[in-house]
């Protein structure tokens, strides 16, 4: 699947390209399904080019079977059912990826569903837990609770016994967030999240905030943070430049953190994937975390998948099927 020219979903087209070859330390995967992420829309529009050396094809995660091993790969065999975190190339029938970014299909999850996991789980785990160190009984505020990222963050927050508050933009998304375990769900189009968080935490505020909105929420997030709170910005859907009240930051002894996963060095991604395998995969096996799949479309319908995300219709993930499992 290639982007014929920067533009709308109609620019996505099926195309014959040369098969990737696994280099040293890489595995080749026959892709079964690929996850669709908001970043894919930006790449299609020409606003999010792949990092140097990455595939030009869109797609940050996939599931499938290993069909080739590059020199020096240990721990995987041909035929293994896996999912993988990619720097690109997921919207395809085959992809080569460093072995450190590959995870076994988790117990109790189908091979198709497994495509919904790598990008969201690695993002949420690395930011909320490895970086912001969310602890039991703390309050986590998740913006965009019904997104792929949000549905994962709600479940992982509850898995460690945090209080979870989520924001959504439509009443139709409230029930699913509650079902996933959120303690409070706020429709941000109707209610001011600063006030609601203050009320439900009896003035304490949120210890950790996972933000996907950016500039327009910076001041409100700062006012919502508890003392010693951690604001983690992973998306800038509303803009990148905002005003930060340093007095408030200092008075709250708070931290503002921000990370992007895609451009991180291979070794850092491998460390995140290893931590996910050790800490999150058992939570899937014991039922604390389930992939939330909105719909599965054939790879040829990637344009329709992008339209669904553009209109924010989805709850959880949209997946593309490259071949029958
Ligand atoms: N930094 C990283 O490494 C990294 C990695 C992965 C994803 N991300 C970011 O994480 C975000 C979610 O990604 P995704 O793939 O899961 O996308 P997605 O499913 O398309 O979700 C986007 C979400 O943003 C929410 N949103 C938009 N405006 C909002 C607002 N004003 N207040 C609260 N929520 C708002 C939407 O909620 P409603 O539809 O309910 O309005 C929607 O649920 C994206 O911004 C993406 O770029 C970052």
Automatic annotation (TrEMBL):
Domain of life: Bacteria
Keyword set, alphabetical order: NADP, Oxidoreductase
Stated name of the protein: PIG3 family NAD(P)H quinone oxidoreductase
InterPro entries: ADH-like_C, ADH-like_N, ER, GroES-like_sf, NAD(P)-bd_dom_sf, Quinone_OxRdtase_PIG3
UniProt cross-references to CDD domains, sorted A to Z: p53_inducible_oxidoreductase
Key word NADP present: yes
Pfam families: ADH_N (PF08240), ADH_zinc_N (PF00107)
NCBIfam families the record matches: quinone_pig3
Single Gene Ontology MF annotation: oxidoreductase activity, acting on NAD(P)H
């Amino acid at each position: 699947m290639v982007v014929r020219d920067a533009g709308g979903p109609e620019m996505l087209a099926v195309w014959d390209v040369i098969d990737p070859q696994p280099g040293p330390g890489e595995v080749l995967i026959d892709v079964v399904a690929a996850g669709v992420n908001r970043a894919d829309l930006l790449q299609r529009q020409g606003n999010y080019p792949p990092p140097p050396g990455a595939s030009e094809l869109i797609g940050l995660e996939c599931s499938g079977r290993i069909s080739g091993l590059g020199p020096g790969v240990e721990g995987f065999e041909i035929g293994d059912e896996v999912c993988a975190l990619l720097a690109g190339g997921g919207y395809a029938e085959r992809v080569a990826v460093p072995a450190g970014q590959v995870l076994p299909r988790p117990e109790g999850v189908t091979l198709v569903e497994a495509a919904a996991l790598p990008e969201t789980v690695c993002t949420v785990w690395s930011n909320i837990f490895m970086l912001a160190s969310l602890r039991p009984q703390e309050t986590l505020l998740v913006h965009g609770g019904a997104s792929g990222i949000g549905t994962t963050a709600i479940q992982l927050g509850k898995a460690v016994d945090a209080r979870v508050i989520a924001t959504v933009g439509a009443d139709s998304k409230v029930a699913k967030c509650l079902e996933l375990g959120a303690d409070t769900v706020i429709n941000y189009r109707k209610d001011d999240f600063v006030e609601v968080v203050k009320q439900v935490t009896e003035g304490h505020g949120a210890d950790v905030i996972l933000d996907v909105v950016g500039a327009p929420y910076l001041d409100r997030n700062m006012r919502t943070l508890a003392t010693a709170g951690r604001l983690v910005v992973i998306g800038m859907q509303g803009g990148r430049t905002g005003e930060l009240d340093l007095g408030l930051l200092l008075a709250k002894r708070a931290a503002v953190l921000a990370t992007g996963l895609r451009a991180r060095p291979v070794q850092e991604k491998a460390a995140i994937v290893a931590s996910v395998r050790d800490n999150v995969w058992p939570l899937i096996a014991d039922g604390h975390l389930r992939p939330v799949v909105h719909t599965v479309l054939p790879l040829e319908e990637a344009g329709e998948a992008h339209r669904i995300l553009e209109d924010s219709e989805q709850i959880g993930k949209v997946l593309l099927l490259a071949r029958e499992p």
